[in-house]
Specification:
Length: 335
């Protein structure tokens, strides 16, 4: 039995910075209102002529591959987590295989939204532990800005989300005291519609139905979020899945060197930090700069924390996420 180890990290965000003041010019909002509720100061939006979910993922992956010290030919498998694929089908995994010029390796798409990257890490970890693959490219990438309601009606959601991508290379590690120690995955589908994008979909409303109705008040093709309900569930599930991971490895909260939470809302991260009595040096947040980038948020934050020297060899690193589905997950890593 092997362990899997993160050997390379990279991220990419668009150059286009959108501040809270920028949003206040197109909807009834202001910097104070947004920061008070979310902690967000600015986010990145794609330039529609340049960036896509796939292209951003490719750029992040190229950095991760270089830092891992491997070549593209060494990659055995691709896992791509996103809720915003370039096409309805095929998914972006095969597009990455094509655009990176990889061998005809397998490519898997993960649709677990905010928990997507941790789910993807878990899958990669299992493939490597069983000896099936040696080097796996895991990507989380999102383009939200093309599908948000940038009016006062949609401000509760549209001020939160941003665009970006992060990537990691997971490689075989023979020292089983290092690498991914365990992952923990959960879902609760009874609350699926509390944070969802309902249309277009094959269930009730397809594109042709939306066009036929031509209803200016139809909000089904914009993301919906029951904010307070999601917040209340998030703080509970974050706490549970972090403790589940620690207990599975006979660790205490005091053993955490770095917690990288999904960047959903700064207030959620602060609540968890206070509950576990962690210092600012033990939690990394960057939602202030990038907003909520869903599946990309953890790999972007993880890469930044590592680049800044906040994660060192031997550290216990915890990844934790909660989001649409509802799904939630954690990963315990010995760096």
């Amino acid at each position: 039995m092997y362990h899997s180890k993160i050997t390379g990290l990279g991220y990419y965000v668009p150059d286009n910075v959108v501040t809270n003041d920028d949003l206040s010019k197109i909807m009834e909002t202001n910097d104070e209102w947004i920061q008070e509720r979310t902690g967000i100061k600015r986010r990145r939006h794609v330039n529609t002529a340049e960036d896509t979910t796939t292209s951003m993922g490719v750029k992040a992956a190229e950095v991760a591959i270089q830092r891992a010290g491997i070549s593209k030919d060494d990659i055995d498998f691709v896992i791509f987590a996103t809720l915003s694929p370039d096409y309805y089908f095929p998914g972006p995994g095969v597009l990455v295989q094509r655009d990176l010029g990889l061998k005809t390796v397998g490519a898997l798409d993960v649709r677990n939204q905010c928990s997507g990257f941790v789910y993807a890490i878990s899958i990669a970890d299992q493939y490597i532990k069983t000896g099936m693959y040696k080097n796996i490219l895991v990507i989380g990438s999102e383009v939200h800005s093309r599908g948000l309601d940038f009016t006062t009606r949609g401000r509760g959601v549209s001020v939160i989300f941003g665009d970006g991508a992060g990537a990691a290379i997971l490689s075989r590690e023979e020292d089983t005291t290092k690498g991914i120690l365990s992952t923990h995955l959960h879902s609760e589908g009874q609350y699926a519609e509390e944070l969802a994008l309902i249309a277009p979909g094959m269930g009730k409303r397809w594109v042709l139905d939306i066009l036929k109705d031509n209803d200016p008040n139809d909000e089904s093709y914009y993301p919906y979020m029951n904010g307070q309900f999601v917040f209340k569930n998030a703080v509970v599930r974050f706490s549970e899945v972090i403790m589940e991971g620690l207990q599975a490895n006979n660790l205490q909260v005091s053993d955490i060197d770095m917690l990288i939470p999904h960047q959903a809302n700064l207030r959620i991260s602060q609540f968890i930090q206070q509950k576990f009595q962690l210092t600012d040096d033990q939690v990394y947040n960057n939602i202030m700069e990038y907003g909520n980038t869903t599946a990309a948020s953890i790999p972007i934050a993880l890469t930044e924390a590592w680049e800044q020297g906040k994660i060192k060899e031997g550290d216990t690193v915890v990844l934790a996420a909660f989001g649409s589905g509802f799904t939630w997950a954690s990963a315990i890593i010995k760096w």
